[in-house]
Design goal:
The protein is α+β, with helices and mostly antiparallel strands. It has one domain. About 15% of the residues lie in helices and about 35% in strands. It contains 2 helices and 6 strands. A 6-stranded antiparallel β-sheet has the order 2-3-1-4-5-6. β4 and β5 form a beta hairpin. It is globular. The protein starts with a strand and ends in a 13-residue tail after the last helix. The model has no long low-confidence stretch (mean pLDDT about 95).
Length: about 110
Protein backbone atom coordinates (compact mmCIF):
# COMPACT_ATOMS: atom_id res chain seq x y z
CA UNK A 1 0.00 0.00 0.00
CA UNK A 2 1.08 3.54 -0.76
CA UNK A 3 0.72 6.43 1.69
CA UNK A 4 -0.05 9.98 0.72
CA UNK A 5 -1.89 13.14 1.63
CA UNK A 6 -4.71 14.44 -0.51
CA UNK A 7 -5.91 18.04 -0.34
CA UNK A 8 -9.69 17.72 -0.64
CA UNK A 9 -9.85 21.18 -2.23
CA UNK A 10 -7.73 19.81 -5.12
CA UNK A 11 -10.36 17.27 -6.16
CA UNK A 12 -12.94 17.90 -8.85
CA UNK A 13 -15.13 15.27 -7.13
CA UNK A 14 -14.38 14.58 -3.47
CA UNK A 15 -16.61 11.48 -3.44
CA UNK A 16 -13.53 9.51 -4.59
CA UNK A 17 -12.35 9.75 -0.96
CA UNK A 18 -15.09 7.26 -0.01
CA UNK A 19 -13.21 4.61 -2.02
CA UNK A 20 -9.96 5.15 -0.09
CA UNK A 21 -8.68 4.15 3.32
CA UNK A 22 -8.50 7.50 5.11
CA UNK A 23 -6.22 7.37 8.16
CA UNK A 24 -6.57 10.99 9.32
CA UNK A 25 -8.33 14.20 8.28
CA UNK A 26 -7.36 17.69 9.35
CA UNK A 27 -7.58 21.32 8.27
CA UNK A 28 -4.73 23.70 7.44
CA UNK A 29 -6.06 27.16 6.68
CA UNK A 30 -8.69 26.72 3.99
CA UNK A 31 -7.42 23.27 2.96
CA UNK A 32 -8.94 20.02 4.19
CA UNK A 33 -6.30 17.28 4.08
CA UNK A 34 -6.61 13.51 4.22
CA UNK A 35 -3.82 11.04 4.96
CA UNK A 36 -4.69 7.98 2.89
CA UNK A 37 -3.55 4.48 2.06
CA UNK A 38 -4.08 3.47 -1.57
CA UNK A 39 -3.28 0.54 -3.81
CA UNK A 40 -0.99 1.31 -6.74
CA UNK A 41 -3.91 0.67 -9.14
CA UNK A 42 -5.89 3.50 -7.50
CA UNK A 43 -3.22 6.13 -8.11
CA UNK A 44 -3.85 6.61 -11.85
CA UNK A 45 -7.59 6.83 -11.14
CA UNK A 46 -6.96 9.51 -8.50
CA UNK A 47 -5.10 11.64 -11.04
CA UNK A 48 -8.33 11.88 -13.06
CA UNK A 49 -10.05 13.47 -10.07
CA UNK A 50 -7.60 16.35 -9.67
CA UNK A 51 -9.17 19.69 -10.48
CA UNK A 52 -7.64 21.94 -13.11
CA UNK A 53 -5.03 24.22 -11.70
CA UNK A 54 -1.96 24.09 -9.51
CA UNK A 55 -2.52 20.71 -7.81
CA UNK A 56 -0.64 17.48 -7.31
CA UNK A 57 -0.47 14.52 -4.96
CA UNK A 58 2.40 12.20 -4.12
CA UNK A 59 2.50 8.68 -2.77
CA UNK A 60 5.19 6.39 -1.36
CA UNK A 61 5.53 2.95 0.17
CA UNK A 62 6.80 3.23 3.74
CA UNK A 63 10.43 2.16 3.92
CA UNK A 64 10.93 2.46 0.15
CA UNK A 65 12.75 5.22 -1.75
CA UNK A 66 10.39 5.48 -4.74
CA UNK A 67 7.81 8.27 -4.76
CA UNK A 68 5.03 8.71 -7.31
CA UNK A 69 4.30 12.39 -8.02
CA UNK A 70 0.82 12.63 -9.51
CA UNK A 71 -0.46 15.55 -11.56
CA UNK A 72 -3.80 15.56 -13.41
CA UNK A 73 -2.29 14.45 -16.69
CA UNK A 74 1.17 13.16 -15.78
CA UNK A 75 2.81 10.87 -13.21
CA UNK A 76 6.51 11.04 -12.34
CA UNK A 77 8.48 8.37 -10.50
CA UNK A 78 11.28 9.85 -8.42
CA UNK A 79 13.76 8.58 -5.86
CA UNK A 80 13.29 10.48 -2.62
CA UNK A 81 16.97 10.16 -1.69
CA UNK A 82 18.21 11.43 -5.08
CA UNK A 83 17.02 14.99 -5.69
CA UNK A 84 18.44 14.88 -9.23
CA UNK A 85 15.46 12.62 -10.09
CA UNK A 86 13.07 15.38 -8.95
CA UNK A 87 14.03 17.87 -11.70
CA UNK A 88 11.31 17.02 -14.25
CA UNK A 89 8.54 16.78 -11.64
CA UNK A 90 9.51 20.12 -10.13
CA UNK A 91 9.73 21.80 -13.55
CA UNK A 92 6.33 20.43 -14.50
CA UNK A 93 4.80 21.57 -11.20
CA UNK A 94 6.25 25.04 -11.65
CA UNK A 95 4.76 25.15 -15.18
CA UNK A 96 1.36 24.72 -13.46
CA UNK A 97 2.14 27.68 -11.14
CA UNK A 98 2.82 25.51 -8.10
CA UNK A 99 5.36 27.35 -5.93
CA UNK A 100 8.68 25.47 -5.82
CA UNK A 101 8.55 25.48 -2.01
CA UNK A 102 5.41 23.30 -2.22
CA UNK A 103 7.14 20.77 -4.48
CA UNK A 104 9.02 19.19 -1.59
CA UNK A 105 7.52 15.65 -1.80
CA UNK A 106 7.69 15.01 1.96
CA UNK A 107 7.42 11.39 3.14
CA UNK A 108 7.11 9.95 6.62
Amino acid sequence: MFKGTIVENSLSDASILQELQVEKTWQAGTWVLHDVLVAQEQIAELSKHLADGPWYMHFWEPGQDEVLVVFKDKIFTIQHSDKSTWTEAIAYGKSLSIPEAQLDFLVE
